[in-house]
Amino acid sequence: MKEISYKDLVINPFDLIGKEWMLVTAGNEESGCNTMTASWGHLGCLWGHNDPTAIIYLRPSRYTKEFVDRECYFTLCIMDESFKKQMAYLGSVSGRDEDKIANAGLTPVYEDDTTYFAEAKMVLICKKLYQSELQEDGFIYQDIVTDNYPQHDFHTMYIGKIEKILVRDE
Ligand SMILES: Cc1cc2nc3c(=O)[nH]c(=O)nc-3n(C[C@H](O)[C@H](O)[C@H](O)COP(=O)(O)O)c2cc1C
What we know:
Blueprint (H helix, E strand, L loop, with lengths): L1 E3 L8 H7 L2 E7 L3 E7 L2 E5 L6 E7 L4 H8 L2 E6 L5 H7 L9 H4 L4 E4 L2 E4 L4 E12 L8 H7 L7 E12 L3
Antiparallel strand pairs: 1-10, 2-3, 2-6, 4-5, 5-10, 6-9, 7-8, 9-10
The structure holds flavin mononucleotide.
Flavin mononucleotide (FMN) binds next to strand 3, strand 5 and helix 2.
């Protein structure tokens, strides 16, 4: 993998997150890691000098959330289309129940006190800056709550500063 600047990124964030999906991963070699598929999130600028930031949203039930809560970093891995089946699997079973990473045939790379996968075509290494659970009284339209949170299991949003972007060195 080679590091590139966020200034050199040419991507459509809507396709990248919403259609291609990403793997959210946290943890390290010593204390273990977990990963899950995510298709809700944002890329943009916030704080500092328009610092590049990523936002992800995790429901309380996700095992990955325990790792993201515990660690200072999380990573976002963008995979090739050929990994769609593995991503569907990683987004439907929990790391509490099985060794998802091994079953999906992914190779963890432990770096910068976090984990990403050697098979990724792009990796964003993010330092957690802010986390907060979405609040019911913040919703302007109640139907979003009714449609998405019948159990009131509101997502926690995590804002991470994108400290490193790695792309496959082809
Ligand atoms: C395409 C897709 C997108 C998903 N996006 C999210 C998301 O943005 N946030 C979230 O909390 N769960 C999302 N999920 C659900 C988690 O990936 C799923 O519950 C996963 O099994 C959690 O694994 P874990 O318990 O090992 O963390 C998504 C699942 C799929 C298949």
